[in-house]
Amino acid sequence: MRLPCALAIGLLASLQLLPAEARAQSPERESSVIVYGEDPCPQVEGEVVVCARRPEEERYRIPRAIRERQPTETAWASRVEALEEESRHMRPGSCSTVGSFGQTGCTQALIRQWYADRRARAAEDEITP
After folding, report:
1. Measured between alpha carbons, how far is 69 from 78 in angstroms, rounded to an integer?
2. Given 30, 61, 68, 126, which residue has the most CB atoms within 10 angstroms?
3. For residue 48, what are the domain limits?
4. Considering its fold, how many domains does the chain have in total?
5. Alpha-carbon distance 109 to 98, whole Å?
6. Position 119 in a domain
7. 55 Cβ partners below 8 Å, 6+ apart?
8. At a CB cut-off of 8 Å and minimum separation 6, what does 58 contact?
9. Distance separating alpha carbons of residues 60 and 92, to the nearest angstrom
10. Phi/psi class of residue 46: alpha, beta or left (left: φ > 0; alpha: ψ in -120 to 50)?
C-alpha cells in the first residue's frame, strides 16, 4: 500500500520541478467536434481537438438524444380541459347540489355521457373486424 502513495508523491514533486517552458506548452483550449463520413478532423494550432466520427447518413438528422426524447409537458388545451373537468361539480350547470344553479346542468351531463358512450362504441367498432 505504501508504494502507490510514494509514486503519487514522487510524480507530483516531479511535476513541480518541470521547467516553466514545458508547462507553458500545454494547450490552452480543448474542443470536441463531430465529423461525418470521411471528413477530416480539423487541426488547430495550440488547441487539442477531439473528433467523434459518425456515419454519413446521420449528417443532417436531428441528434438521437433529441429525436428520441419523450414530451414531458402537456398542451395548454389539455390542461384547461382537465381543470374544467375537476371544477365542473362546483360551477353553475353542474347537475349537483353543490354550488349555485347546480340543477341546471343535468341535461348537459346526460349529453356529455351520451357522447362519451358513442366515442367508446366507435373505438370498439374500429378494433373489432
Report:
1. 20
2. 61
3. 27-69
4. 2
5. 15
6. yes
7. 36, 37
8. 36
9. 54
10. left
CA distance 126 to 120: 10
- Residue 3 maps to a domain: no
Closest CA to 53 of 81, 32, 34: 34
* 128 pLDDT higher than 70: yes
**114 in a structural domain:** yes
Residue 118 lies in a domain: yes
Q: What is the pLDDT of residues 38-78, one digit of tens each?
A: 999 988 888 888 999 999 998 888 888 888 877 777 788 88
